[in-house]
């Protein structure tokens, strides 16, 4: 029973951390993230979010400036490895099957691509709903570890400083919505 609860908690934390990454990177509109104490989410809370938040500079979207789909996928893959191996937050991903990790990866790529102005549609839940109450609430230290994982992935993939700062600003803008304790 204890092992089953641990497994369920790990799966949920993995999904939440993935959604956190997506929300952080893409800075979805806070108006899309609704949460209440009800145990049953409303249809509006479960509806896929389709807001595009990418800014354009000289006619180029963030999607283009980052290098398109394959470059975004590489950053997501490296971020996931950083987060999975992090001593503070990696524990939430232990026990995820290969299929669960692939699903999580694709949701992140789709959300990042859409938010950056690329040709994809994110079908996941809002960031607020996805992270509400996970493990008693995410901490600032866990959030910092996640943002650090993003920064390391951006550096590994040689993302230009302007785009890196834009992505990290997105990440930090969600702190108040995601961190609960």
Write up this protein.
The structure is a single chain. The protein has about 180 residues and is mainly α. The chain has one domain: Globins (Globin-like, Orthogonal Bundle), CATH 1.10.490.10. It has helices at about 1-25, 45, 60-65, 70-85, 100-115, 125-130, 140-155, 160-175, 175-180, and strands at about 55, 60. The protein has a two-stranded antiparallel sheet. A hairpin with a 2-residue loop joins strand 1 and strand 2 (about 60). Helix 1 (about 1-25) packs across helix 8 (about 160-175) and helix 7 (about 140-155) runs antiparallel to helix 8. The longest helix is centred in the first third of the chain and has 25 residues, at about 1-25. The radius of gyration is 15 Å and the shape is globular. It starts with a helix and ends with a helix.
Count of individual helical segments: 9
Shape: globular
CATH class: Mainly Alpha
Radius of gyration over C-alpha positions, nearest whole angstrom: 15 Å
Largest sheet features = 2 strands, antiparallel
Average pLDDT, to the nearest integer?
Answer: 77
CATH superfamily: Globins
Can you tell me the CATH architecture?
A: Orthogonal Bundle
Q: How many E strands? A: 2
What's this, in brief?
With 181 residues, this protein is mainly alpha-helical. The protein contains nine helices and two strands. Helix 4 crosses helix 5.
Keyphrases for this structure?
two-stranded antiparallel sheet, 9 helices, mainly alpha, Globin-like, 181 residues
């Amino acid at each position: 029973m204890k092992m089953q609860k641990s497994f369920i908690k790990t799966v949920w934390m993995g999904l939440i951390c993935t959604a956190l990454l997506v929300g952080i990177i893409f800075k979805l509109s806070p108006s899309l993230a609704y949460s209440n104490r009800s145990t049953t989410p409303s249809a509006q809370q479960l509806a896929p979010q389709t807001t595009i938040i990418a800014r354009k500079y000289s006619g180029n979207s963030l999607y283009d400036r980052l290098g398109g789909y394959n470059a975004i996928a590489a950053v997501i893959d490296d971020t996931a490895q950083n987060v999975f191996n992090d001593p503070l937050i990696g524990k939430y991903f232990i026990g995820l099957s290969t299929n669960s990790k692939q699903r999580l990866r694709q949701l992140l790529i789709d959300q990042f691509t859409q938010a950056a102005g690329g040709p994809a549609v994110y079908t996941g839940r809002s960031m607020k709903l996805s992270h509400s109450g996970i493990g008693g609430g995410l901490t600032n230290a866990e959030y910092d570890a996640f943002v650090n994982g993003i920064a390391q992935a951006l550096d590994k993939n040689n993302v230009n400083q302007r785009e890196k700062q834009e992505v990290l600003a997105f990440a930090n803008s969600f702190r108040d919505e995601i961190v609960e304790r």
